[in-house]
Amino acid sequence: MTILSLRDILWYAGVAAAVPWSDNGPKHLHPDLVAQGPDLKLNTKGAGTQKPNILFILTDDQDIEMNSLDYMPFVQKHLLDQGTLFRNHFVTTALCCPSRVSLWTGRHSHNTNVTDVNPPYGGYPKFISQGFNENFLPVWLQGAGYNTYYTGKLFNAHTTKNYNNPHVKGFTASDFLLDPWTYNYLNPAYQRNHDPPIIYHGQHTLDILIDKAYALLDDAVASEKPFFLAVAPVAPHSNIEGDISSIDEIKNAVLSEPIPLRRHAHLFPDAKVPRTPHFNPDKPSGVNWIAQRPKLNKTLVDHNDYYYRQRIRALQGVDELVDGLFRRLEENDQLDNTYIFYTADNGFHVSQHRLNPGKECGFEDDIRVPLIVRGPGVAAGDISKAVTTHIDLAPTIFGLAGIPPRDDFDGLAIPLEKAQATVKRHEHVNVEYWGFAAEEGSLGGAIYWNNTYKSLRIIGENYNLYYSAWCNNEHQLYDLTTDPYQLRNIYPGYADYEENQTILGASLTRVIHRLDSLLLVLKSCKGVVCVKPWGKLHPDGDVESLPDSLLPTFDPFYEQQQSVSFSRCEQGYILDAEGPQDALSYSRDGAHWSHWV
To answer: Which residue of 136, 261, 282, 378 is most buried, as measured by CB atoms within 10 A?
Structure first.
């Protein structure tokens, strides 16, 4: 059972480096994978010329749905005006450490098994025990001839006690923020290369990071080799005093609002959380613990507005950092040969759906994040509607660096050039989460432990949907075409369900059967199956999208498919709690069980 030729699979796996090229990409390549080809063709330099540099700026908890980019004039000048904004860009786990590991490995959290910020299910110790210290992006880039640099936050539970057990591999030079001081804006701990950590008492983390980032960029330019530099400021994350590198210590930590640089503390005195329809709505929304949230009172609304102002004030230091990095690239004649990425590890909510500040949910606010790319051939001032995720970023960087993609990548290189905008891509985003949801800010502190769910975002011509299954087996279905703020759960059995409602001309029941089957494939997918999940359900290749799957002839097949479900709620990825793991595959002679080969 295949949907790709052996040659195509080998190319996707990165072992067919000599695949001949046609004008539209490598010959014999499946159309959905052609998006990887033009990047490799256009950006792989010939002998004696230098590969492009890559500057990657990764903020912490930055939103796009609450308009944070509107308050960053240098990001607008250097990136939005001169690059492309990918407006349908999503994280696949709305929590920093799992999201970062997925970003730097190109693999979903169910394939990294790093699903939390702390042991036993996550954090730096889990990253090490899973073998990724020898097997992630900087190591691969070094093998391709790049010098690699990093400063700022890497992972949670990367501490002043375990930073050398072992040291992070893969970097020519590094200067990491370390727990328990990572989120302490005025007392951060940085650790350079293999030197002991230094705690900068009374100094602001962003001022320190700016100096370190500039120094690393100077070193990178002086090396006269292609370079990868990642700069990861902690803003606009909450300020935290205390140790949160273990679950036992979290209860003793003090969470408060982000602390901006003193020169920015007076800005935006009238700014408030945007009063969108899902801001503290009159009617509860969501399911599980979210549906039980009371409406926020005036004290909480006022506090959350203040929290919002502190977030956009804290981002002013990041904005200054961006300006300084661009000035140095220009001064050193490196800007024209550098791709600059700007994104965040996850989104954030403040008062939406009656929620106090936090992330970890599957709503747009938490999973949709900024992604802006500027570089050679990237359209200036453009907005792409392509569906992209953090899983796609490592394959994208591989394409820019001229490295064939790996067979364990779960994503697909993003078409960066305007000419590639019409290249067909997948319609889906697989979102997964295990464990807790926490309220942040000085009036927060509540932790909800039953926050495990699987969900699917799917966007195409005339459809824009979110579907989820929770560990208590509650469900959500939102039609974002008519309900962009996800206030009406139209899954059968909930208050907003309407019996005669249709999507793409099909009943909700028929659509749900398709969505649930697609999610069943995605929640345990690996490699190319994550890119082409419909091919697992329809190996004959006649279904490549949700509309294709809605033919009535497929109804009996989808009706007999097992549903996504959980046997219990767990704090991590424990397989026997995860319900069915394999999906039926359709054949013209009837349905049968099949495993991807």
So the answer is: 136
Measured between alpha carbons, how far is residue 272 from residues 267, 303, 310 in Å? 12, 10, 10
**Of the candidates 171, 121, 180, 179, the residue with the CA atom closest to the CA atom of residue 148:** 171
Pairing mode of beta strands 189-192, 173-177: antiparallel
pLDDT at 423: 67
In this prediction, the residues of the chain whose per-residue pLDDT falls under 50 are 1-48, 591, 593-597
Residues 6+ apart with CB under 8 A from 443: 299, 300, 303, 356
Nearest to 415 by CA among 93, 43, 20, 145: 43
90, 344 contact by CB (below 8 A): no
Out of 377, 397, 425, a domain closes at 425
Rounded CA-CA distance 467/516 in Å is: 8
- Domains held by the chain: number: 2
Kindly state whether residues 446 and 564 are assigned to the same domain: yes
Cα separation, 563 vs 513, whole angstroms:
8
Nearest residue to 387 (alpha-carbon basis) of 464, 454, 462:
464
Q: Checking DSSP bridges between strand 227-232 and strand 147-152, what pairing results, if any?
A: parallel
- The answer to whether residues 399 and 26 touch, using CB atoms and an 8 Å cutoff, is no
Per the annotation, the verdict on 530 as an active-site residue is no
384 and 526 part of one domain: no
Please list the residues that pair with 239 across neighbouring strands: 256
Q: Are residues 438 and 549 in the same domain?
A: yes
| Cα-to-chain-centroid distance, residue 293 | 26
Distance from C-alpha of 185 to C-alpha of 183, rounded to nearest angstrom:
6
* CATH number of 111's domain: 3.40.720.10
Domain final residue, candidates 393, 425, 457: 425
DSSP line for 210-269: HHHHHHHHHHHHHTTS-EEEEEE--TTSPEEES--SSHHHHTT-EEE-----GGGTTS-T
Give residue 589's domain range. Answer: 430-593
Q: Token pair of 305, please?
A: 């507005």
Amino acid found at 591: A
pLDDT in tens, 84-140: 999 999 999 999 999 999 999 999 999 999 999 999 999 999 999 999 999 999 999
Question: What's the whole-model pTM score?
Answer: 0.91
How far is residue 400 from each of residues 197, 293, 408, 589, measured CA to CA in Å? 34, 46, 18, 44
CB-based burial label for 297 (10 Å; 0-12, 13-18, 19+)? exposed
HEC secondary structure over 277-303: CCECCCCCCCCHHHHCCCCCCHHHHHH
- Within 416-533, strands assigned E span 428-433, 437-438, 447-448, 453-460, 463-470, 475-479, 502-503, 506-507
The β-bridge partners of 586 are 591
Separation between Cα atoms, residue 88 and residue 68, nearest integer Å: 16
Can you read off the two tokens belonging to residue 584?
Answer: 């039926």
Tell which residue, 18, 118, 106, 148, has the closest CA to residue 527.
106
Helix axis angle, 393-401 relative to 96-105, nearest 10°?
30
Among 96, 525, 530, 569, the one annotated catalytic: 96
Residue 38 per-residue DSSP state: H
